[in-house]
Design a protein that fits this description.
The chain is mostly helical. The chain has helices spanning 4-28, 39-66, 70-86, 99-107, 109-123, 129-135, 148-172, and strands at residues 140-141, 144-145. A two-stranded antiparallel sheet has the order 1-2. Helix 1 (4-28) runs antiparallel to helix 7 (148-172) and helix 5 packs antiparallel against helix 7 (148-172).
Amino acid sequence: PVSRTSIIIGKCLGGTTVATLQGLLVIALAPLVHVTLSVSLVLELITEVFLISFAITAFGLVIAARIKQMQAVMGIMQMIMLPMTMLSGGLYPLRNLPGWLSLLIHLNPLTYGVHAVRTTVFDHLSMPAAALSALNPPLTIAGWTVPLGACLLLITAIGVVLLAVAATEFSRSE
């Protein structure tokens, strides 16, 4: 008696919760790299990690709804997520890239999530401006510096759209 849309929403929220709890484990390790945790920093990071997890989980559900063999879903997701992670700025700096690669980075929703988390952490640290600009350069699109709120709004919108697509796809199957 439960609608397919309810199942997809439940799956998305369940996956988001698990991923957010895993993110909390990483946040708990922050003092090991001299990041002092405060209540406001932890709450901001939990919110950002939740939004990123929501968007990525919804993306996974879109993929899963279109694939008939469940065994293939994890392999395909890893094949997609690895390049997204590499192109997010989480592992490598986003400066001095060729134009085509810069375009891919700006189309990658994970870029905006990584930038939001990095900006939140660096906003709570005391350091010289030169070090801050080197470690957390601004994310720009055609000279416009993308503000933190726009990054979070974009991630949220992508998650909602992907969840709607997943629900539609799942309703059509079988």
